[in-house]
Specification:
The chain is mostly beta strands. It is built from one helix and seven strands. The strands form two sheets. A four-stranded antiparallel beta sheet has the order 1-2-3-4, with helices on one face. The chain has a three-stranded antiparallel beta sheet with strand order 5-6-7, with helices on one face. A hairpin with a 2-residue loop joins strand 3 and strand 4.
Length: about 120
């Protein structure tokens, strides 16, 4: 289980090559969306959660303690993953694969609730 977009594996996503990671930081989850010619992403590491677009432009970053929950919103024209913060703000990503979006939300909510990833994703760490 676990789609390629969620694996913690440098071969799966180009985060390290694009400067996503700080020294010693480890990727836990990545969700990619496609908007035109750029790649939009939500990434969760052991130190932060951020939303941005590639190549290399990070647009919003929050510490993990700010995250309240992740929500998958199924819309009429597009599906959206929304990571909601305790202060009412959110990080959103659309133009996603619905299966990967739901899986990302489930994995992040499990991480928030238990402090660990779902068992099916642990082999990729």
């Amino acid at each position: 289980m676990g789609t390629a977009a969620l694996w913690n594996c440098e071969e799966v996503h180009s985060g390290p090559a694009l400067g996503w990671l700080q020294p010693g930081e480890h990727t836990l989850l990545v969700l990619l969306g496609q908007t035109g010619i750029s790649t939009e992403y939500l990434a969760v590491t052991d130190r932060r959660i951020f939303r941005g677009s590639a190549p290399g432009r990070r647009t919003k970053e929050r510490p993990p303690t700010d995250v309240r929950e992740a929500v998958y919103d199924e819309g009429r024209f597009k599906d959206v993953v929304r990571v909601q913060m305790h202060d009412g703000s959110s990080l959103t990503l659309d133009a996603i694969n619905p299966h990967e979006g739901r899986e990302f939300v489930d994995a992040l909510n499990t991480l928030i609730a238990t402090g660990t990833l779902p068992p099916e994703l642990l082999p990729f760490r």
